[in-house]
Structure formats: structure tokens, C-alpha cells
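INFO batch 0412 | record 1 of 1 | parsing
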Amino acid sequence: MIQTNVSNIPITLRMRYDNTLVLACAGSGKTYGMCNDSRSFVEESNKKVLMLSYTHKGIYSIKKEYAKQNNGVIDKNVVISTWFQFVLKELIRPYQRSFLKRISQIRSIDFSSIYGVDYAKKNTTSYFLNRNNDVKANRASEFALLLNKLSDGAVLKRLEDTYACLYIDELQDLVGKDIDLLELLFLSSIKVYCVGDYKQSILKTHNPRSDRKKGGMHVFSYLETCRESHHINIIKNNISKRFTSDIANFANLVYPEDPIIGMLEAEEPVNGVFQILQTDVHDYIQHLKPNILRYDVKTTTLGYPSINFGVSKGMTLERVLIFPNKPLSTFLLDPSSRLKAPDKYYVGVTRAKYSLAFVVEKLNPNAYFFEDSIKLGGNDVRVLKFRI
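INFO prediction complete | emitting C-alpha cells
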């Protein structure tokens, strides 16, 4: 069953579908909704609540949002952890004896060989562990699944005895055997609540050699095929409260699938999407104080400090100034064209609340950008303004 708004879900449907998958756009309040839902479980259950995200930055965002909603306090029975901390501490370490025949052998996670070639024979010790007994990141979820099998389900049973509910933020970061593990959790007595956005699939937990069409940006479409068997209530939300309609409309050109709607009403001066000349950049930065973003370290920014698109993921910024790389510069000349691999660009253009500006060498009007001007310190500055 696919719903478009969580508040529209009938109570009977909530009871039938124990698990929830939220596919929602940038700025739609995914982390807010997740934390809000978890607080009701904390009050109702005597078991713990587990909240996960792949990155430490994601963990910080969850802690910040939960505390914000709970008078600055994270409840003692709420555990907030990275994905790999969860797999290591909750799934692998307690039952390592099932495979190694000894306890207290496994130390940490080894991320050093994610992109290397590994010829270790499947299901041997060297297949899962390096010489220091660290679990290879590419095999962590696969190892956890094997331990659950070897222990006759004790890994999952222990988790069910400890946690009432499991929340996963940035679901699109999970890939490969992570999805098999996720499916096992969906079929357990633990309520699973996942949120994410396939358009922001710019990170992945490891480098899978199989199941590539089940994880990452494909995880949402795959789980839709499992909604009946895995008792998943699916919620879709393409309405963003983060930014204005102009920014949403431009983002829809960058990544046209499943168009988003910007609902922010702003009275701030200089709202919208612009192209500005390099010669006006200093005045623009001085008067509007935007955060400066770029695709990656190869993109020059005239010496101004900047943030890569990937690092900006999860951020909400008032104003953003982007120094385009070559593909983005070409796209600005004809926004009806398609960007190859638009994920990172989509992340970059959906950070700002009020204004999004691109630095160009020459103003070239087209079907989407029209000649206009903005006021900077009492002076009129020529720009191209986006309209659709």
C-alpha cells in the first residue's frame, strides 16, 4: 500500500503494516518525522529504540533533532549508532563464537580494502577477517547473516529481546548484503522505520560485488516489490519546506524524475535562482554572505573557501553560491538538457532556502534564465534570473 502523507494512514492500516518506508525529497522533514515517531515508542515500550545512519554526520543530525524535540535530552533507552557500529556490536561480536569457536577475537571494521581485489575463499576466516581480526567492510553484513544462520537465529532473537523499534536514516546508503540483512529485520518482531531519497544516492556503505539492483538508489523500488510479504507501509512525500518554488523548479530540471514542490514562502531580498558574473562575486559574497559550494576539489572557486556537494548533504543553508564545473556550466547554457549522474548536483542545488546563484564568465540568456538585476549595497548588478 502506498500513501502520500503519514497523517492519512488509517489506523487499521498502521496495524496491518508494522514497518514503514518513507521515500521523501530533500527538505521534507525525514529526520524530523523519524525522531517524532521514535519518541512515541520510547514512551510506550519497555524495550530500547535503535536509530541508525551510515555516517557520523548522519548520527549527529539524528541526535540534534531528537534532543530538539525532547527538551534537549536523548532518552536513556534510545541508542543512536552508525550502521557499522550496529553490525559489529549488536550482530557480529556477541555471536562470533558460532564461526570462530572462540570469543573476544574480533576487534573492529577494516575499510582499507573496500575497492581492492580479494581472492579469499568464500566463507573462510580470511574471507571475513583481515590478519588483525578486523571485519572486512565489504563482508560485514554477509558475516552477520552467516552468524545468525550458524547460531540458529540467536543473533536476531537477541536483537528482538533488546529493541522494540529500529529506525534507519539515509536508507539509500545501504547496498549489497545490507539489503538481505534489512529484509531479515523487516520479517522480525522489531518494527522497522526507514527514510531516504533515491535522488541523493551519493554514498554507499561498501562496494558490493552482487545484488547491485537491490541497494542504493534501487532500494526503494525493490522494497516496493516486497511490501506485502514484508508488511511495509510506503509513504511518499515530494513536498519540501526547506526552499522556495524557484529552487524546487530548478532542481526538477537537474533531476526530472518525481518532481518536487518547494513550499517555503520568503520575504527575504534576492530570492530565487541566478547566474552572476565572476566580476561581481566579491560584492555578492560581501552583501549576501552565501555558503559556497562546488562539485569536488577539482573545481576552482577563485580562492574562496568552499564545501563539496557531497559534504553538504543533510545541510540546510540560507543562501548558496556555486562555482560550476564544466558539466554544470554546459547545463546552465541549456537547462533542458540532461546531466549525467545528477545525484551530486541535485544535493548541491537543494541546500539553499532563499537563493541559489551560479558564477559564470558571461551572461548567456536562454529559455529559463532571463536578464534581470539585483541590488547589492545600493548598486544594481546585472544577473540572469531563473523563471519557469
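INFO post-check: The first strand starts at residue 2 and ends at 3.
INFO record closed
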